[in-house]
Amino acid sequence: MELYHQCCRYARVGDKGEILLGRNVVADAFEKRLIRVVTHAHQDHTRGLSRSTKWSIYVIATPITFEFLKLLGYKIPEDKKLPLSYNNSITIENETITLVRARHIAGSAQVLVESPSYRVGYTGDFKLPGTPPLEDLDTLIIDATYGSPRYQRRWSDWEALSALIALIDERIHKGPVWIYAFNGKIQEIMIELRRRGIDYPFLAEPLAIEMAKVSSREYGVDLGDLRPYLGGEPDESAVIFIHSSKTNGKIRLKGTHIRLTGWEIKSMVRMIRENVFNVSFSDHATFREIIEYVRDAMPKQVIVDGYRGKDAWFTAKYIERRLGIPAIHMPVRRK
């Protein structure tokens, strides 16, 4: 109970997913605080943003995230936008706020809040390698989307990516290859495929293309032949990227259909039925990577985000028993 109250003093996860840091900062959901931080442009981290633009004096995000938010239709007054590049800081009301790179989607950031009395941080969504640990923290709030060994994949993302490439090469001569994922992951996969020499034409919906242009500039990757998908069945062999929400409307069309999902833990590539496959690929840290991050960061105490994660209670217990670091999950009611 003593740890619970210490954690809640300068860092906590609220019942609606709000990440409260220090006295003035809230990240990834609405709360009546001076500063709203958006760690990245996924919907579960932009909740209540319109309310925040009315209440908070500033909205802080990386420049790339602000570009994504504009493309996604969020309207943030220019006088409230405070773009902050990685490792740059701003001090407001005696608290210094710094955004640190997180490997998730383009523009993703961790949040560090410091004052003379405390140093607290929040990972946001992340995966390893590529996310430097926030060190010397009094309290770390960590994402735990895959918060238990039962969700642990037995292969790396690079192995899953190689399996995806092999499947595309095998199938594309039989017709179009359809890839279903959420925005952010779509652009990441486009970039990784181009980096590995995949030069088939890419088709995508207009919003995905605009977001891909932003991502390609961020990563310095030429996306090559990238054209709008105009509907129906294309006449050429191409890789077509479709938002996951539209899977059911497209999956009966000619070609090979591939769903990218981190929840596929049986195998890297699994045939669901003829011409329909799951490929195990995620933007989130595996359970082992969560523990590795905490071991490298070595905070004084840990709060596991139980609002967005699975089995956060288990992650907290594991951190306490294996790493000897006091840990709880929040909100506590979501066990």
Summarize the structure.
With 335 residues, the protein is α/β, with parallel strands linked by helices. Helix content is 27%, strand content 25%. A seven-stranded mixed beta sheet has the order 7-8-9-10-11-19-20, with helices on both faces. It has a seven-stranded mixed beta sheet with strand order 14-13-15-12-16-18-17. A six-stranded mixed beta sheet has the order 1-2-3-4-5-6.
Examine the coordinates and then state which fold CATH places here, giving the name of the CATH topology of the largest domain.
Metallo-beta-lactamase, Chain A
From the coordinates shown, what is the CATH architecture of the largest domain? 4-Layer Sandwich
- Compute the separation of the termini in Å: 17 Å
Instruction: Give the overall silhouette.
Output: globular
Query: Would you count the extended β strands for me?
Result: 20
Q: Classify the secondary structure makeup into a structural class.
A: alpha/beta
Profile the largest sheet. Answer: 7 strands, mixed
Q: Tell me, rounded to a whole number, the average pLDDT.
A: 93
